[in-house]
Amino acid sequence: MTRGLALRRCEGLFQRVASRAAGSVLRESHGSSYASWESHGWSHAPRESRSHDGPQLDQSCSPPFRAIRRSRKFSSSSSERSGGNSRGGDSLSLPGVKHIVAVASAKGGVGKSTTAVNLAVALSHHLRLRVGLLDADVFGPSLPKLLGLESAGRPLLASPSPGSPMLPLQAYGLLCMSMGFLMPADVAAVWRGPMVMAAVEKLLRGTKWGRLDVLVVDMPPGTGDVQLSLSQRARLSGALIVSTPQDLALMDARRGVTMFRQVNVPVLGLVENMSYFTCPECAHRSHIFGHGGAREAATELGIEFIAEVPLLPSIRSRSDSGHPVALGEAVASEGEDWGAEGPGAECGGATRGEGAGGEAAVVGTYERMARRVWEKLEEQAQAGGAAQGPTIVND
After folding, report:
1. Contact (CB, 8 A) for 326 and 363
2. Average pLDDT across the chain, whole number
3. Is 323 part of any domain?
4. What predicted TM-score, i.e. pTM, was given to this entire model?
5. Domain residues for 246?
6. Above 50 in pLDDT, residue 246?
7. Is 54 within the bounds of a domain?
8. Domain assignment present for 303
9. CATH number of 180's domain
């Protein structure tokens, strides 16, 4: 199949991809001060007709071809224009952004979003860097919830002119962008791959990031369209892989490492999330999901084992309340409130001291993680380690 025919078929798919959900998204005129889907060429409301087979989409509605046509650098023609696997000059860079870091795993539910948010917070608060945070998970955006921005409204446009870039929302000193800011929380993005890639491209390049030391990208699970698109169309400085200790998660983490290596994106290291649970009574560590698997996998893969993050209730509660634990605010942690009898009073008297200051220890873990990631990024930049550029994957 020729590439031109493939592209025409992709465009034809959009006639069938539009859904009633797409029609319910927020739409504004080009003169609006707020970002919306239509002002960026992403969505057109389908018109619904009725038949004995149930609701059908009117095929006369115009699909958002403009976004796709502007994004065709994903095709092999971009490789030809830029000379094979080179990065094509500055075409893949974001103006003013020094490093772009992908936080990724091929497995869902391992804590990528939590890790990405707390890494970004630690880079900003503990290392005093200028940090942006991009939520690249179009189907399940988590950023609004994790940063307490659910009621913050839509991003403003830099100017009322059509195609104007969006101004990122701000939380805890971070510049943030997510599909969750542009659509209601109960609306699903019923899109196929090319539409998703166009949306991610808009979130990445249609946002006025300004000058940043690091842009942290919270990747969706898998090794598919979004991962390949960002790897091939943005100058990723590196990828941080997140996994839990069990074999099932580590299998997919290995796939993620392999994918980034195939597209020549440096793998910064591996983070083991939910490594252990510390009993709040006796401070005994329980390795609920296994022990040592991620460290062994990192050794096998030849990458650095960056950190292990425990399974701590305050990480969950802080995330749910929109206050990332890496902020390090002074609150009582799960292991600090022992009561008058002291630790171990109800669990056989074992006092290992692991529970005391549990949240403070996690704050330190994220700070060390951020420091090590930044060191690797700077070492890589000085050595020219990220200069090779992505391999274009066409199949």
Report:
1. yes
2. 73
3. yes
4. 0.72
5. 94-383
6. yes
7. no
8. yes
9. 3.40.50.300
